[in-house]
Specification:
Order of helices and strands: HEHHEEH
Helix content: 40-55%
Number of domains: 1
CATH class: Mainly Alpha
Strand order of the largest sheet: 1-3-2
Length: about 80
């Protein structure tokens, strides 16, 4: 089940209000990146940095964007 863009935006806005930084759960991160949650689960060592908060895994938006920039392919 994928998150709708409206739901993802609401999660991101709430995270920003609470922490003054953007942290997303795996579902929101996958939706932002346009990949499946399984992709993130299987790319733990070579994917974007993640943080463990208690039993939850979260991704900092800036880390995700940095990782995505590193994946750019030159033509």
């Amino acid at each position: 089940m994928s998150a709708t863009p409206i739901h993802v935006n609401a999660l991101v806005e709430k995270a920003q209000q609470v922490s003054q930084s953007l942290y997303m759960d795996r579902r929101a991160t996958a939706a932002f990146m346009g990949v499946s949650e399984k992709f993130l689960a299987t790319h733990l060592t070579d994917g974007p940095k993640r943080l463990r908060v208690g039993s939850k895994i979260v991704y900092r938006l800036s880390d995700v964007e940095d990782w995505m920039r590193q994946q750019e392919i030159s033509r």
